Amino acid sequence: MVNNSVAVASVAVVLATYIYFNLNKKSLPKFETSLIKDQFQEFELISIVNHTDEIATYKFKLPSATHKLGLPIGQHITIQYDFFNEETNEKSEIIRHYTPVSLDLETDGYFELLIKKYKLGKMSQLFRNIKVGDKIKVRGPKGFYDYEKILPKKDHLYMICGGTGITPMYQIIRYVYLNKHLDKTKITLIYGNQREEDILLKKELDSLVNLMDGQLKVHYILDNAPKDESWVSKIGYVDKDLLVKCGLKALDESDKNNTQVLLCGPPGLVSGMKKLLSSEFNYPRIKPITKSDDKVFVF
Ligand SMILES: Cc1cc2nc3c(=O)[nH]c(=O)nc-3n(C[C@H](O)[C@H](O)[C@H](O)COP(=O)(O)OP(=O)(O)OC[C@H]3O[C@@H](n4cnc5c(N)ncnc54)[C@H](O)[C@@H]3O)c2cc1C
């Protein structure tokens, strides 16, 4: 009887939270979405802003000035690149994943991708050669994470990422910021890069730290020490000591911490973190495909 009352009370709390949050959150009025789940569509490039030789922001036009992309927070798009493969002398195609840095909540009629181009990267070749007026093939939404649908909300997100793995994290951080009057989720971002100049969105992240009154903490990790090291949390790899220093606790049976760890980045970082979380922080073995509600989600 007592257990039943507790269960009913818990369901009522979750329901009330859901209704309150959804009535009050910054949400979109009725809009037309551009993506079609299983079908590639073409979007025209309207501008390029080069940040360095390797990094640029690409802005693509949606079907009308009032269209939204239609991407849930935490999901991504896939881009297909058709090219002539000189090794096989045949037409080839590749697809890769990208998380826009623009949010539907803030933009109409366009979306933006922040891209790092790699010397030997196949898709990087497309972004190296693309010109304003050219079109790319895009399909989506893709992915198993949907931040808005996670209930009850987590108390604390630990985001561990490297390089371009920042883009899904940035999307979630920005969404939490836009809803910060209701969404009190704490976020600790642990962001690794080789060099200071490789850090993407640093200005935006530092500004969000100031705007979010302690709700967001950012730890930069670098392989190579910059001239002034004072703002870097560690030179080297993400290890147990660093995660403890950042506040991550071992998972206890009652899971009072109500935390979730999000991972995105190069395969070495992701597999290293999966092992560390299981062996040192008591997290259950992390499956190859993770879901929104799992204790650890891998993008
Ligand atoms: C969910 C998700 C979201 C993503 N969002 C973005 C995004 O917003 N912007 C973005 O630029 N990328 C993003 N990526 C990475 C992207 O999907 C590609 O992997 C990347 O653009 C490289 O593709 P490529 O074909 O040019 O390189 P590939 O041909 O796949 O790789 C060739 C070589 O490039 C180098 N390389 C490729 N990827 C990496 C890497 N991640 N770290 C270090 N070296 C690498 C390696 O030397 C590799 O051997 C995302 C990935 C995922 C899974």
UniProtKB/TrEMBL annotation:
<dbReference type="InterPro" id="IPR039261">
    <property type="entry name" value="FNR_nucleotide-bd"/>
</dbReference>
<keyword id="KW-0274">FAD</keyword>
<feature type="domain" description="FAD-binding FR-type">
    <location>
        <begin position="38"/>
        <end position="148"/>
    </location>
</feature>
<keyword id="KW-0560">Oxidoreductase</keyword>
<comment type="similarity">
    <text>Belongs to the flavoprotein pyridine nucleotide cytochrome reductase family.</text>
</comment>
<dbReference type="InterPro" id="IPR001433">
    <property type="entry name" value="OxRdtase_FAD/NAD-bd"/>
</dbReference>
<feature type="binding site">
    <location>
        <position position="98"/>
    </location>
    <ligand>
        <name>FAD</name>
    </ligand>
</feature>
<keyword id="KW-0496">Mitochondrion</keyword>
<keyword id="KW-1000">Mitochondrion outer membrane</keyword>
<protein>
    <recommendedName>
        <fullName>NADH-cytochrome b5 reductase</fullName>
        <ecNumber>1.6.2.2</ecNumber>
    </recommendedName>
</protein>
<feature type="binding site">
    <location>
        <position position="122"/>
    </location>
    <ligand>
        <name>FAD</name>
    </ligand>
</feature>
<dbReference type="InterPro" id="IPR001834">
    <property type="entry name" value="CBR-like"/>
</dbReference>
<dbReference type="GO" id="GO:0005783">
    <property type="term" value="C:endoplasmic reticulum"/>
</dbReference>
<dbReference type="GO" id="GO:0002926">
    <property type="term" value="P:tRNA wobble base 5-methoxycarbonylmethyl-2-thiouridinylation"/>
</dbReference>
<dbReference type="GO" id="GO:0090560">
    <property type="term" value="F:2-(3-amino-3-carboxypropyl)histidine synthase activity"/>
</dbReference>
<feature type="binding site">
    <location>
        <position position="114"/>
    </location>
    <ligand>
        <name>FAD</name>
    </ligand>
</feature>
<dbReference type="InterPro" id="IPR017938">
    <property type="entry name" value="Riboflavin_synthase-like_b-brl"/>
</dbReference>
<dbReference type="GO" id="GO:0005886">
    <property type="term" value="C:plasma membrane"/>
</dbReference>
<keyword id="KW-1133">Transmembrane helix</keyword>
<dbReference type="InterPro" id="IPR008333">
    <property type="entry name" value="Cbr1-like_FAD-bd_dom"/>
</dbReference>
<feature type="binding site">
    <location>
        <position position="123"/>
    </location>
    <ligand>
        <name>FAD</name>
    </ligand>
</feature>
<feature type="binding site">
    <location>
        <position position="167"/>
    </location>
    <ligand>
        <name>FAD</name>
    </ligand>
</feature>
<dbReference type="InterPro" id="IPR017927">
    <property type="entry name" value="FAD-bd_FR_type"/>
</dbReference>
<dbReference type="GO" id="GO:0090524">
    <property type="term" value="F:cytochrome-b5 reductase activity, acting on NADH"/>
</dbReference>
<dbReference type="InterPro" id="IPR001709">
    <property type="entry name" value="Flavoprot_Pyr_Nucl_cyt_Rdtase"/>
</dbReference>
<dbReference type="GO" id="GO:0005741">
    <property type="term" value="C:mitochondrial outer membrane"/>
</dbReference>
<feature type="binding site">
    <location>
        <position position="96"/>
    </location>
    <ligand>
        <name>FAD</name>
    </ligand>
</feature>
<dbReference type="GO" id="GO:0003954">
    <property type="term" value="F:NADH dehydrogenase activity"/>
</dbReference>
<keyword id="KW-0812">Transmembrane</keyword>
<keyword id="KW-0285">Flavoprotein</keyword>
<keyword id="KW-0472">Membrane</keyword>
<feature type="binding site">
    <location>
        <position position="124"/>
    </location>
    <ligand>
        <name>FAD</name>
    </ligand>
</feature>
<dbReference type="GO" id="GO:0017183">
    <property type="term" value="P:protein histidyl modification to diphthamide"/>
</dbReference>
<feature type="binding site">
    <location>
        <position position="116"/>
    </location>
    <ligand>
        <name>FAD</name>
    </ligand>
</feature>
<dbReference type="Pfam" id="PF00970">
    <property type="entry name" value="FAD_binding_6"/>
</dbReference>
<feature type="transmembrane region" description="Helical">
    <location>
        <begin position="6"/>
        <end position="23"/>
    </location>
</feature>
<dbReference type="Pfam" id="PF00175">
    <property type="entry name" value="NAD_binding_1"/>
</dbReference>
<comment type="pathway">
    <text>Protein modification; peptidyl-diphthamide biosynthesis.</text>
</comment>
<keyword id="KW-0520">NAD</keyword>
